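Dear H.,

Thanks for agreeing to be a second pair of eyes. The structure we're designing against is below in token form, covering all 416 positions.
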């Protein structure tokens, strides 16, 4: 398209407005008017008058360019004017189509020879008429875009969207967090409808190209000198509409189903740990990947142990005699059926804490464990029999001197 054609802006628009009322072609096509002037109609929405440019000029290559050069040149332009990068930009759209048409001719030895000898008119004699729209271009040159966008040809104006991610809250016990476990979880999620394979159309029928936007998903309105591109109200931007909906999914293309998954909960999970199950979320749209399922772990509080990260804490009551004389004890641990023996040293004071290295929670990294802290609570008996009282009194008499001395020096210290 040459510059002078854009300078026709205002006149072009007036012509377009006049044409809008009378034109209702089924799809875009090129109709030849007199001489080298061709006119493109697209559902009354926009009409561009253009003088066809030389295909070599369009791609910016020399007349003796080889296939590789031509492909490279086209790729560059296609990326530059790709509709995903230029949403609603009519000029980019036209340049995108123009370069696709040039490439279509120059990549084909036979078409290129005809064009070299007879120009645009020669090709029209063979029935060649460029592309009808984006879909056409993407289905012809899908491989060109694949390298760049990481996915295949786009269909219409609807681009791939990944599915929504889901969350599942799972409560487990501290023992289960310690040992790890397999758990079957059952939840509901949308899956692609088996009846219509997700199209939403009744089996045997297909979604139709939206008549309002001709599959583009966008409609262009003119307001004075401006063109405003908005999402098509008929198809909500999908480019297609279902006229005969699938009964199983009522045209949605998805159905809500129960799904059960056996989950491997690794040893060491903590409150708030998240397990991510890739692809177990809702299905994607237009070929997009499905979302993920996040299982959020909640660990029930334990009657004996509390936890901070990989360390475990517990409190053990001991008698004042055990504290004074020392003892060895068995305490329950989180390994089912196992016990841990602890040594209470002689002269243990109330609140003293024993550290059992490597006896805490397993780490999620899979090696090593945290520590276990055992706080010793010394209990004083509230009731004693006569014999016990006598023995303690005897004990006190033996200790008497020391106790009094200790108390004296204590009071001395704090009153000085
Ligand atoms: Zn269905
Ligand atoms: Zn539409």
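And this is the sequence the design step returned. I haven't edited it by hand at all.
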């Amino acid at each position: 398209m040459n510059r002078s054609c854009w300078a026709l802006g205002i006149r072009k628009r007036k012509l377009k407005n006049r044409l809008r009322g009378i034109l209702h072609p089924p799809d875009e096509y090129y109709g030849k008017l007199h001489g080298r002037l061709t006119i493109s109609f697209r559902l009354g929405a926009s009409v561009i008058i253009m003088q066809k440019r030389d295909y070599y000029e369009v791609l910016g290559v020399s007349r003796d360019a080889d296939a590789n050069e031509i492909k490279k040149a086209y790729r560059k332009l296609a990326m530059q004017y790709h509709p995903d990068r230029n949403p609603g930009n009519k000029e980019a759209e036209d340049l995108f189509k123009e370069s696709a048409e040039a490439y279509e001719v120059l990549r084909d030895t036979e078409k290129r020879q005809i064009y070299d000898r007879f120009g645009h008119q020669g090709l029209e004699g063979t029935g060649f008429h460029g592309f009808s729209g984006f879909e056409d271009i993407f289905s012809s040159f899908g491989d060109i875009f694949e390298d760049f966008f990481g996915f295949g040809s786009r269909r219409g104006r609807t681009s791939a969207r990944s599915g929504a991610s889901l969350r599942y809250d799972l409560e487990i016990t501290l023992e289960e967090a310690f040992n790890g476990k397999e758990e079957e979880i059952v939840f509901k999620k949308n899956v692609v409808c088996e009846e219509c394979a997700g199209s939403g159309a009744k089996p045997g029928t297909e979604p139709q190209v939206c008549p309002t936007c001709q599959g583009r998903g966008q409609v262009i309105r003119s307001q004075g000198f401006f063109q405003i591109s908005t999402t098509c109200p008929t198809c909500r931007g999908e480019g297609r509409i279902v006229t005969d909906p699938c009964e199983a999914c009522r045209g949605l293309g998805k159905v809500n189903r129960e799904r059960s998954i056996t989950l491997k909960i690794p040893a060491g999970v903590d409150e708030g740990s998240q397990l991510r199950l890739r692809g177990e979320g809702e299905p994607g749209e237009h070929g997009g990947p499905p979302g993920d399922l996040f299982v959020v772990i909640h660990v029930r509080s334990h009657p004996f142990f509390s936890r901070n990260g990989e360390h475990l804490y517990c409190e053990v009551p001991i008698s004042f005699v055990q504290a004074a004389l020392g003892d060895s004890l068995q305490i329950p641990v989180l390994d089912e059926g196992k016990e841990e023996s602890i040594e209470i040293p002689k002269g243990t004071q109330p609140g003293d804490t024993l550290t059992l290295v490597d006896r805490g929670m397993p780490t999620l990294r899979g090696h090593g464990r945290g520590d276990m802290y055992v706080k010793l609570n010394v209990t004083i008996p509230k009731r004693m029999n006569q014999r016990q009282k006598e023995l303690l009194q005897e004990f006190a008499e033996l200790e008497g001197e020391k106790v009094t001395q200790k108390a004296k020096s204590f009071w001395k210290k704090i009153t000085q």
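Two observations from my side: The two ends are 103 Å apart (CA to CA). The chain has four domains: 3-149, 166-299, 311-380, 388-416.

Warmly,
E.
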